[in-house]
Amino acid sequence: MSKLTVFDHPVISHKLGYLRDKNTGGKDFRALVNEISMLMAYEVTRDLKTDEVEIETPLQKTKVKRLSGKKLGVVPILRAGLGMVEGMLNILPAAKVGHIGLYRDPETLQPVEYYCKLPVDAEERDFLVLDPMLATGGSASDAIKLLKQKGCKNIKLVCIIAAPEGVKAVQKNHPDVDIFVAALDEKLNEHSYIIPGLGDAGDRLFGTK
């Protein structure tokens, strides 16, 4: 079974409180998603390997740690996942960015793929799949499945808010994919929206309805 990590950092909790507030406007909402994503990146990348190298300070030679050069990629699930990309790249500027487009059929509530564009060396990279909301888990599971079909083996899922139903679905479909969330909410309502949640992340990011 994959590991679920729920962040309990006070700064993330503080920013998440403003993110949930219905009175938070689009500009501030986008900034908060960016900031929370950047803060989450620290923990998500905790297990990156490092090499010891020798450098010279202004005073003497010494040994320091550098990332071992493992290739990374971030893949936002369109469109809401786009809001998390900049925050991740602030910490991982060398990462390549892929895109996966999925929408939820309003009748079946199942994800439908309409776009997939990945780096040419995707099979050589460790990927972080980004989506602010993990609701039913259908879109995330399908995005991860697409990555695996392209030969990707080391994948993590990074979400800001998750419902227990979505976590269980991803863990069932992809027991090898660890999940990182800023908050685990109560449940899904009858329309598959996360409760208490924050509404539709895509609409709030981009000012649509």
Keywords summarizing the entry:
209 residues, alpha/beta, Rossmann fold, 6 helices, 13 strands, globular
Structural class: alpha/beta
N- to C-terminal separation?
37 Å
The stretches of 5 or more residues where confidence is low (pLDDT under 50) are: none
The beta-strand count equals 13
Number of helices: 6
Q: What's the CATH architecture?
A: 3-Layer(aba) Sandwich
> What is the number of independent domains?
1
Please tell me about this protein's structure.
The chain is an alpha/beta fold and 209 residues long. The protein has a single domain, classed as Rossmann fold. Helices cover 31% and strands 31% of the residues. It is built from 6 helices and 13 strands. It has helices at 10-20, 26-44, 85-91, 138-149, 164-173, 201-206; strands at residues 4-6, 50-56, 61-67, 72-78, 96-97, 99-104, 111-117, 126-130, 133-134, 155-162, 178-184, 187-188, 194-195. Strands 1, 4, 5, 6, 7, 8, 9, 10 and 11 form a 9-stranded mixed sheet that branches. α4 links the parallel β9 (133-134) and β10 (155-162). The longest helix is centred in the N-terminal third of the chain and has 19 residues, at 26-44. The protein is globular and about 65 Å long. It starts with a strand and ends with a helix. The model has no long low-confidence stretch (mean pLDDT 93).
